[in-house]
């Protein structure tokens, strides 16, 4: 692991704990052990507390910290590297791990520019390893059903949509306060919906343009580079030239006493249908004296990640946030142990063809992130209303400012 914060505790830790009790298994690979062997962080303090709390288990966990922690981790006995650091630190760690021949799993957003994406995909191809991205919302049962209905033709021709994801103030003011300066909530969480839209309704359309605005003044100064909320619009073009526009609103300044952990809702409109979903309001409401809505939430999402006492007496922690990480390890196991050595390249190609999580299939999402970051940077500089054209006549990403006849090329290659 590179990074050992909230994301590790919520989703990676349960995977390692369950695999310590029982190995992965498939008919192709047989039993495959998955063990957390090393962690690289800036200070090592969280890992030390984890080891103390778990009474030294796992006993063989190496705790690397400091400026050369990643280098030390890669020199240790690891085969796979999972990167769960702040988004602007993903690239350097992933590049080092892939160059060292490790399979890599990145938290979203994978990277912040297409140039970085190109380099990581090239290194992964050269080294013959997997490079994957965590997009757990694709495994949400409601979202899987949405894609099923669209791909089966029940929902016809998506026209537009609205997505909202609002994080509590404790995220920006507490858990992520160390790295949040100069950042924005859209890059951090809008990518959930960017991938959902791109994967669910694609691939037979083209990303066309990106625009964005937002608000500042709560997390940082009103004229600074740290954003409270962002409103992002993404437009795709269908083969019949009709457009599909999606508005994605994100924030990390929702009151902490909000009844749910995160406020999430979507609406997608089609030629023949409307799909509306609320990720928080799934039928469960809970009130516990002196415990809700702080320690416990009034409207919990038990589908994402929850602890359970199973009917057969076993304690478990599961959900789609955990499922996608375990699925990645199954893909790595299949590449390495799913058949004869001479057929490894064929197995590797089959796992890379899984566009729901392969880094090479992240181009549209990274293009939108790069465009968004550039638009917000221009806003901080006092230039409002910029937009980015995708795959225009001159370049893959071109930023246009109001009143400026000279566009700025962000990425020359085709998206």
TrEMBL record:
Transmembrane regions listed in the UniProt entry: none
Pfam families membership: GFO_IDH_MocA (PF01408)
Gene3D superfamilies: Dihydrodipicolinate Reductase, domain 2, NAD(P)-binding Rossmann-like Domain
InterPro entries: Gfo/Idh/MocA-like_OxRdtase_N, Gfo/Idh/MocA_Oxidoreductases, NAD(P)-bd_dom_sf
Domain Gfo/Idh/MocA-like oxidoreductase N-terminal: 1-133
GO terms assigned for molecular function: nucleotide binding
PANTHER family recorded: BILIVERDIN REDUCTASE A
Protein name (record): Gfo/Idh/MocA family oxidoreductase
Origin species: Frigoriglobus tundricola
